[in-house]
Amino acid sequence: MKKFRSILLLTVFAITVSAGAVFAEEINLLMEGVPDTFIVQNLLPEFQRETGIKVNFEVVNYAQMHAKLLPQLMGREGAYDAIVVDNYWAGEFPAGGWLEPLDDLAKSTPSIELDKYVPSMLDMVGYHNKTLYMIPFYNYTMLLFYREDMMNDPDLKKEYQEKYGKKLKVPNNLQDYVNLCAFMTRKDGKYAGTYGASMMGLKPDPICMEWSNYLFSMGGDYYDRTTWISTINKPEAIRSASLYVKNMTVSAPPGAPGYGFDEAIQLFNQGKAFSIVTFWMFYVDMQDPEKSKVAGHVGLSRMPGGANLNGGWGWAIPKSSPNKEAAWKFISWVESFPIAKKRALAGGAPTRKDVFTDPEVAAKFPWYPQVADILKTAKPVPEFTYSTQMIEVVGRELSLMIQGKDIVKGLDTAAKELDKLAKKARLQ
Amino acid sequence: MPKMTIEKLNKRAGIFFFLPAGVVIIGIIVYPLLFSLVTSFSSYGFLNPFFNQFLWFENYGTIFHDIYFWNSLWVIFKFVFVVVTLEFLLGFSVALLLNRKIKGKGIFYTILTIPMVMAPVAVALIWRVFLHPELGIANYFLSLFKIRPVNWLGSSKVAFWTVVMVDIWQQVSFMILILLAGLVSLPSDPYEAAAIDGASTIQRFIYITLPLMKPVIVVAVLLRTIFGFRTFDLVYILTRGGPGVTTDVMSYYIYRRTFMGLSLAESSAASYILLLINMIVVVFLYRALRMQREVE
Amino acid sequence: MVMKTRSVKKTRILADAATYILLSIFSLIILLPVIWIIRLSFTTKYIAYQVPPVWFFKPILDNYRSLFIDYGFERFFFNSIMVAIVATVIAVPLAFFAAYAFNRFNTGGRSLQFGILGLQMLPPIVLSIPIFVLMKTMNLLNTRGGLIASYLSFNLPFLIWMLMGFLDGIPRELEEAAMIDGASRLQSVIRIVFPLATPGVMAAGILSFILCWNEFLFALMLTAEKTSTVPIALAAMQTERGVMLGTLAAAMCFAIIPMLVLSIAIQKYMIRGLTFGALK
Fold first, then answer.
1. Among all residues of chain A, which has the CA nearest to that of C218?
2. Phi/psi of residue C156, nearest 5 degrees
3. Chain C residue whose CA is closest to A288
4. Which residues in C lie closer than 8 A to residue B255 (C-beta atoms)?
5. What is the nearest CA distance from C78 to chain B, expressed in angstroms?
6. Across the interface, which of B28, B106, B274 has its CB nearest the CB of C153?
7. Min CA distance, B157 vs chain C (Å)?
8. Burial C127-161 (b: 16+ CB within 10 A, else e)
9. Is the preceding peptide bond at B243 cis, omega within 30 degrees of 0?
10. Residue C235 touches partner A, C-beta closer than 8 Å
11. Is C242 on the interface with B (CB under 8 A)?
12. What is the four-CA torsion angle of C254, B252, A60, C248, rounded to 10 degrees?
């Protein structure tokens, strides 16, 4: 009798467990291989405990992600329940009709507090044509980083004062910045071998993103964002391009025209450059003695002139998602204040105002409030169906200009092609 | 009468032998080929994944008028020509060396075939690190010999040759592999006869080795050429087609048309133009290399 | 006579020495970057980029550990091996027989032969979408079987052509002699032609394995988390935070191992002196 009872119990137990397994939901997401992804990944067991939903992260590299997503999005049922969308694609995906509108869901979910997000984030990876398609995930604005030790060096200060008649300080316009880089390209003395700027001339993304900062800080833009006529060959753009080329040829290492993000950062971290314009998440590494020779000497500021390039990712639910409910449960959990704060404390890049200014977060990362301030005026590249192709075209022309092509001709070519793209996307 | 039966038998045997492969080929090869052809006449793309418009040769026209298509064509032709020639010369020399009676061949062979088995993506990533102009080991190595640092990937004059160099480093083992297999399969009779006749090493090479190796050489060159036209990962990672457009190979051009232009129709059209040109090159090569053999 | 022998010997020694020197130079050129990669796998990115290089550093196993713990590399590794082996095992026999048909009987004429090669000249990107659609309709997405099937699409044509070239060097008289003695064609092909074509078959097998092992695009499109292969893992190490150099190098070192094993295993078929060289 006893044996029979234990077998019965065991069987009931087994059935219950397997029933539980059958009913346990699973959702699949395609993610990019960045620290923020791994930070969320570490928190996933918590989500599973709370809701019973198992979340599978498939991690790929940025470039491959776009190619991999497209076939999945165009079908009726795809492999991914939720995805993350880069701001480059934030115009393409809604225009293709591939994303589920989230307005109603957001309104009815208390943990999603849209008013708490930095507005520029919602503009960039949130709304498209007044409909909400994404919830901002993380941010990668570009900032100007520079060597405080060189800025505070008394000899350099004296020399600068004598040469330019002004005090050595962080420049507030592009021309001054380029002059400063030229000055900081030292051939002798204490900082011999240092270049004024570590730049990234690899096309298309690095060079285009870097130059966008120059373009925006001169008040220029790719398109007039209401008429969608290309303004990339206007005087401000031409000026910013010639300053960019000048900086690259005079103050950057000879290999810079081929540098990607990685190479440029490594050069800066090895102490061989005075300044660099790059993503703000790299600041942590720059100040880490195990990863950088210049740890403790790096300051940050907005781009001289004002507008930095904004970039970021947002969570979205594809129309081809097999399980939209579970996907939304996940999104509303991961973007709730407590989880967003946990992510930020672990080193993630925040998108919510309240996380940036939370006392615990600000205590651990004192520069966050400054970044939040800069974020307010950060601007992304225009987002529409052909954003990626736009970047490719501009990147190509910039690369040609560095190799000697006439700047006005290059920007004119770019403007023509950009107008064609706008027409193709039926915006003009 | 008997002759006809034998021919028929042979024909049947041929079909019988080919059939298993043939079935797979029809299923998994002909279908995509047809799909692409049809696509090139349509407006199929990610935004419009339907065959709802018949566009005649409009896509082909778009491609023909794109100067960057022609640039990519020029770049890839230049690349394949240089790379296949150099890899063949180098590979054949090494294969001949490995074919001699010396000790320790196994070690050399193993070492020489390592690069081929590395994923091109990984090879390119690592070489990018080596070739970093300021922090890379390549320029450091040169500096030990008092040679000035080279701007491997940032100079429009040098970048193309850098990509060629890395490709040779990786792919020469392919040539070595095939050519060595060919050399090993050569019969020993002709050589014994030649030794009796007192032929010199060079004479043996020109009159025995080369002609007998013809078929294998043809295959090696043909295959490497076809693979060469597909070069993508190397360029994508090392230079993204730059600086400027000096290394913008055709596969990258097509990649952009597909995933940035979002138009599979246009990239299919470009691919078919490439296919046609490739076919001409391959047939031409084949005839040219084979010609001499038939003459003998 | 004695003088002649001595000078012949001298030439032989010089030739051998030259051979050793040249082979060593080539091997060094190949080996140096490989050694550097091995070094990279035991160090951090910070040290990797230091120039002049730090020669004595404390080697760390973190990269290898991260490879398995963070990336779950064993899964990719296993998938790659399985897919490569199965695709090769299927493709080589099919290709051998097809190559035989082409070479001996000119089946389908030059048009069929060049036709199957023609496909390979289409960039894989353009073929990847129709293959994706095909696999989706057959419900083979995210399966190793689907990936293997798609690999046959480029394996077969190349292998057929390769084996055609090797079969050219094997005279027909051999199998015809066997058939006169009473063997069927199939028997004579298997018992006589196949062994003679061994170096070619081995080379074809290795080529097939390598093509599958390194293939990236189809793997990207057709697989997901559980069935991804090594190249996907390698590409994923190129993150927007920079390249995970140490882990990449560790992964590369690991990925070479099966190939080295294979290479050493088939060496005796590929190098003269140990085998089937003598025909008659």
1. A68
2. -55, -55
3. C46
4. 123, 125
5. 16
6. B28
7. 24
8. bbbbbbbbbbeeebbbbbebbbbbbbbbbbbbbbb
9. yes
10. yes
11. no
12. 30
Q: Is B231 on the interface with C (CB under 8 A)?
A: no
Which residues in chain B have Cβ-Cβ distances shorter than 8 Å to C95?
A: 21
C100 in contact with chain B, both atoms CB, cutoff 8 A: yes
Q: Residue A256 — φ and ψ, nearest 5°? A: -55, -35
**Cα A22 to Cα B134: distance, rounded to the nearest angstrom:** 57
Whether the Cβ atoms of residue B121 and residue C216 lie closer than 8 Å to each other = yes
Q: How far is residue B46's CA from residue A213's CA, in Å, rounded to a whole number?
A: 31
Q: Is the pLDDT of residue B84 over 50?
A: yes
pLDDT in tens, C31-79: 888 888 888 888 887 777 777 777 777 788 888 888 888 778 888 999 9
Mean pLDDT of chain B: 85
CB–CB contact B260 A392 (8 Å): yes
Helices (H) and strands (E) in chain C, counts: 14, 2
- A96 has a chain B CB within 8 A of its CB: yes
CB A390 within 8 A of CB A423: no
Backbone angles phi, psi at A84, to 5 degrees: -110, 140
Interfacial C residues in 87-106 facing A (CB < 8 Å): none
The C-alpha angle B232, C235, B110, rounded to 5 degrees, equals: 75
| Strand partners of residue A198 | A276
For residue A33, the distance in angstroms to the closest alpha carbon of chain C comes to: 5
Walk along chain A (428 residues) and give the pLDDT tens digit of each residue.
566 676 666 666 556 555 444 557 889 999 987 788 888 989 999 999 999 899 999 888 887 888 889 888 887 888 899 999 999 999 899 988 899 999 999 899 988 888 889 888 898 999 988 899 999 998 889 999 999 999 998 988 888 888 888 888 888 889 999 999 999 998 888 888 899 999 999 988 899 999 999 999 999 999 998 899 999 999 999 999 999 999 999 999 988 998 888 889 999 999 999 999 999 888 888 998 888 999 999 999 999 887 899 999 999 999 999 999 999 999 999 999 999 999 999 888 888 888 888 899 888 888 888 888 888 888 999 999 899 999 999 999 999 999 899 999 999 999 999 999 999 888 88
In whole angstroms, what separates CA B232 from the centre of its chain? 11
Q: Measured between CA atoms, how close is C60 to chain A, in angstroms?
A: 14
Contact yes or no for C101 and B275 at CB 8 A: no
Q: Are A305 and A218 in contact (CB under 8 A)?
A: yes
Query: Looking at chain A, which residue has its C-alpha nearest residue C222?
Result: A68
Residues of chain C positioned with their CB less than 8 A from the CB of A68: 220-221
For CA atoms B208, B209, B212, B214, the dihedral sign is: negative
The ipTM (two decimal places) reads: 0.81
Distance of CA A191 to the CA centre of its chain: 32
Mutate to test the interface with B, among A396, A400, A416 (most CBs of B within 10 A): A396
Q: Do B188 and C197 touch (CB under 8 A)?
A: no
Quote the pLDDT of residue C3: 52
- Cβ partners under 8 Å of residue C276, min gap 6: C195, C196, C198, C199, C269
User: What is the crossing angle of helices C73-100 and C62-69, to 10°?
Assistant: 80
Could you report the per-residue pLDDT of C226-276, keeping only the tens digit for each?
A: 888 988 888 888 776 677 888 888 888 888 888 788 877 777 666 654 333
Give the residue ranges of DSSP H helices in chain B. Answer: 2-25, 31-40, 58-64, 67-98, 105-112, 120-130, 137-144, 159-184, 189-197, 201-204, 210-229, 233-238, 250-259, 264-295
The Cα of B68 is separated from the nearest Cα of chain C by a number of Å equal to 17
For residues B268 and B35, is the Cβ–Cβ distance under 8 A?
no
Residues 6+ apart with CB under 8 A from C199: B181, B182, B184, B185, C166, C269, C270, C276
**pTM higher than 0.90:** no
